[in-house]
Write a structure and sequence with these properties.
Distance between the termini: 28 Å
CATH class of the largest domain: Alpha Beta
Strand content: 15-25%
Order of helices and strands: EHEEHEEEHEHEHEHEHEEEHH
Shape: globular
Strand order of the largest sheet: 4-1-3-2-5
Number of helices: 9
Number of domains: 2
CATH topology of the largest domain: Oxidized Rhodanese, domain 1
Structural class: alpha/beta
């Protein structure tokens, strides 16, 4: 069985091109043969999803944490693992980008962020009556599954999320509300909460996101309704981090504005089985 690992860290990388070059050399080595996925590197940090044998994944994770070439930039980075029946990716890619998660607002330093809440404490937090629970993902992700009581901000892209927050923050503050957010792996919430720190609103985020909640809470189904969409060919996971039977059509059907997402996902899935692969936009 293949092992999937997801990771990110907001950390200053003055020379992201050099980091990317080291990573390309690492993932081309024979000891990580068969590794697929993508790694994004930017001045603000690193964001990656990889799949391969246990040995290959162990090797890459150890190098990211301890290779002197990275000068300790990724020390303490957390890896979220899950098993794979379906090969998640078709190729191995390392890219240099402006941001590791596009937010659409310049100058956000996600190294200073909101209040991290452990999965164990999250269960109690989201029951509090003075809390606004926001799903910090796209609407098609929310439709497939979400925490009980969460609000769907009805956004089609992460860049749309700040507009929703701006429109509702005055009302939340007037009502004495606190805000809690969650996303798949935590990265979107870290970027958003860093931006929200100057809004005079208490902001909480689920540590490690949904995937960490599933990993840490064996009874996660008590709080989570449905499945969790993942951005690879497995499509969705249940609360036990197992692939489900959901298909791309199940995710995107009846939503004309998501037709381009469905077409792209089908092309990427076809590449796994020998067709020409296109990079995800």
């Amino acid at each position: 069985m293949l092992v999937h690992t997801a990771f990110y860290k907001f950390t200053a990388l003055p020379h992201p091109e050099h980091v990317a070059a080291v990573l390309r050399e690492l993932v081309s080595q024979q000891r990580v043969s068969g590794l697929t996925g993508s790694i994004l590197v930017a001045p603000e940090g690193i964001n990656g999803m990889l799949a391969g044998s246990t040995e290959a994944v162990n090797c890459v994770e150890a190098c990211l944490l301890g290779d002197p070439a990275f000068a300790g930039a990724f020390t303490g980075m957390v890896f979220k693992r899950s098993g794979c029946t379906t090969p998640p990716f078709g190729k191995m890619k390392v890219h240099v980008k402006k941001e590791i998660v596009p937010f659409g607002i310049d100058g956000v330093d996600a190294r200073r962020t909101g209040i991290n809440v452990s999965p164990q404490d999250w269960r109690e937090l989201i029951k509090q009556p003075d809390l606004v629970l926001l799903d910090n993902r796209n609407s098609f992700e929310y439709r497939l599954g979400h925490f009980e009581g969460a609000i769907d901000p009805q956004v089609a892209n992460f860049r749309d999320f700040p507009a929703y927050v701006r429109a509702h923050a005055p009302q939340w503050k007037a009502r004495g509300k606190r805000v809690a957010m969650y996303c798949t792996g935590g990265i979107r919430c870290e970027k958003t909460s860093a931006w929200m720190l100057d809004m005079d609103l208490p902001v909480y985020q689920l540590e490690g996101g949904i995937l960490n909640y599933f990993q840490q809470m064996p009874d996660a189904q008590l709080d989570w309704q449905g499945e969790c969409f993942v951005f690879d060919n497995r499509v969705a996971l249940n609360t036990l981090l197992q692939e489900t039977s959901s298909t791309l059509d199940d995710v995107y059907q009846d939503e004309p504005e998501d037709a381009w997402r469905l077409a792209r996902a089908r092309r990427l899935a076809a590449a796994i089985h020998g067709g020409p692969e296109e990079s995800a936009a």
